[in-house]
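Regression test attached.
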Amino acid sequence: MDLKIALGTANAEERNAVDSLLGQPSETSQGAQRDELGLRVSRGGGELRQLRHMLLPTLHSVNDRVGFISRGAINYISQRLDIAPAEIYGVATFYALFDTNERPARQVHVCIDLACRAASGCTEETLPEGAIPSPCLGTCERAPSVLVIETGVTVRQEVLAPATTKQIAELVAGKSAPTEQPIAQAAPQTPDQSLVLLSRIGIVDPLSVDDYVSNNGYSALRKAFAIGAENVVAEVTASGLVGRGGAAFPTGRKWAAVASQPVKTRYLICNADESEPGTFKDRVLLEGDPFAMIESMTIAAFATGCQHGYIYLRGEYPRALRNLTNAVEVARERKYLGDNILGSGFNFDVTIFRGAGAYICGEETAIFNSIEGYRGEPRNKPPFPVEVGLFGKPTVVNNVETLFNVLPIINNSGEKYASWGSTGSKGKKLFCISGAVNKPGVYEVTFGATLRELINLAGGLKSGSQLQAVLLGGAAGGFVGPEDLDLELTLEAARAAGTTLGSGVVMVLDQSVNMIDQLQRIAAFFRDESCGQCVPCRVGTVRQQEALARLVNSNGSDSAAIDLQLLRDLGQVMRDASICGLGQTAHNAIDSALTRLKVFSV
Amino acid sequence: MSTQVTTGLQVRKSIELTIDGKKITAPEGSTLLDACRAAGKEIPTLCYGDTITPKNACRVCMVELEGSRTLVPSCSRKVEAGMVVKTDSERTTHSRKLVLELLGSSVDLSLTKNVAKWNQSYDAKPSRFGAPSFHHDNRDDAVTGHHHPPDGQTAETVHQPVKIDNALYVRDYSKCILCYQCVDACGEQWQNTFAITTAGRGFDARISTEFAVDLTDSACVYCGNCIQVCPTGALMFTSEYDMRQAGTWREDEQTQTDTICPYCGVGCALTLHVQDNTIVKVTSPNDHSVTHGNLCIKGRFGFQHVQNTNTD
């Protein structure tokens, strides 16, 4: 491509950051220090354009090294990947963890989202100067939470949670965070080998494959190879497993659809972009049992005929990244990934792909665009991912927890798995309990437990706490009140009660929490995280936030009725006409607060 | 265009579907919008352009499809046998009304065709979201994932100063509905120049060059194909902009004359827009088989010699 490169040259650090990923430029390629002859020849444009999926990793590499993406860096990446600077700018400015303006090497991201502000009152206004307000960081069980990123030759990422105001100020001033709590602390039921999904958490060393193997690891994969791909799909179908990311689509049906595609190049994506406020179950699984992630992905790939898998991991999970990276490397070394896995003749490998601060990239088609090096905007459906997905090929997209469920299904049987749970909700489910309970964390239950039982499992309400509301399913879910404590936490009971389990968030809010503040934060969250592609969501989320702000000021005057009607109108257009699930659910929690909890009742 | 029934020697299959209770047939591969319009239904469109792959971003053309949880964009959804479609249900009306209101309250639609008429037919009242706010930081400096909280009174808009950085055309992004057509025309769908992109996210999403540099520093080749596809007047010939500013732009008095571009042998069709015996802008017919509406800088902007009265 005829690139127009102007204004700005990459410095040595930026070039190194890019070259460390892409290798040195060849003599005739753009971006190389070319002599007179070299300038007359330019080769490899077509090959370079095949590398577009390296764009986000390259931007990460530069951001990790120098802390921001400069003009010079964009120009150099442009030459190395043959992508116009404007396009790279469009991608870089899509992600909240990147900045195209110069900034300090040390960034302190402080969570101001639902659980953290409920726990500490931490808001945009109360942050010390220099701290960056952040959406949910996925450590809600020990809110409030801080993520420190210090860029340099080796980027350092630390999580501190819970963090006091004093500690946050110290982090901003440059102090190191103390060592993070043990992983298993986030799952209070552990260690307990009788658990199904959390059986290895707190028991195995997450960095040791030998430990994993001696704790029932790779038994499911061996069995899968023994029974064959078709039977694996049949077992998963028989199990009644449905997606655990929030949409509850039958996993077996998804797998069968991909397995039956005429196109043989297929991809598997593990959706680990866990960004729904209040959700942290996937983080615990990935940190504490990363080899199980690799094994379950290998089974899914074997069953559906995928040759390559991606783990799309949200950018704010440093420990999960470390443990997963180790797991992939060790698994490759020990031939659990690569060619002829366990002598089966099946070839499969996995790439870890880091997100960069965009909730929308958890949407299954936005993931494709993000991996392919485009802005993470959702695609139009149909065509559906099972037919036309990543790189235009049939693609399976499964949530982390969904994939983890495959191991007990294969180890036992689909039938056995289906014997757990209720008529409409089969198997085991992880719930992320945060807020005013004594032992917040990830809990594994058989479908059918009531909300009350779950709260009791988490040690009950804190002393002095009275239940005000529970947020089920995260910002895209809905609030229920104290009268709903006997709600069975099954998909069908939640649906019948007009609410949702979503990604398994159970955020317990007591009387100390300002519900209006929570609603305003939810509205702000959706406004910030909308990709901006379609009008109902791009403008609707802003108008929703504005109507809420007016309601807060209205004190029950006549205008309140008008604004409540506006909110309902906005909710309907977002639900009916948005391109993807983000816009379609952006009004749910607010709607539930208005109708169920009667916040702003006039 | 997709309404064409034959492609070469291949005859396209007819698909049967029901629109507003009436059975109709449409050629395979056509869109619901084609089918609805062929059936005489009036469906508003804003981001849709006949030379660009539909982005279905504005969501004003939504119709109700039986079996679908949400409404579907008629501009991009292909017809399928047995579809049962409603173009005029309570949900479609509500959706169109709200989209018109959301855009009308945030964007200057004064030059967008048919908006006044549609506002009336859908009872859209953009002003019910509050008085528009015109006080902004530079939208090009927006920080992704962050925003200023609302003041509880005004409705935020995309208002910003007009960008005038070259002699040929201006960019008034206060009028931009983010239809993506200019980006697609500049990029892979027509020009392959990639001078502009969508930058930022959410309400801060905007059309921009890299680092919002002036067009003169960007990869822009001034083909003007972005102006050709812009449905809202956000992109405009400088000649038109200046005349509008001076109050001398009178579209109803203009004549349009089709001719062939004199510069090279390709044979692009030009439409000369003439007012007071002076060429005021140049377009190309979207349905012309050579140009599909596209030109180069010479055809689009190189018309001054025609009216150069200096005979020295």
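Expected vs. actual: identical. The mean pLDDT of chain A is 95.
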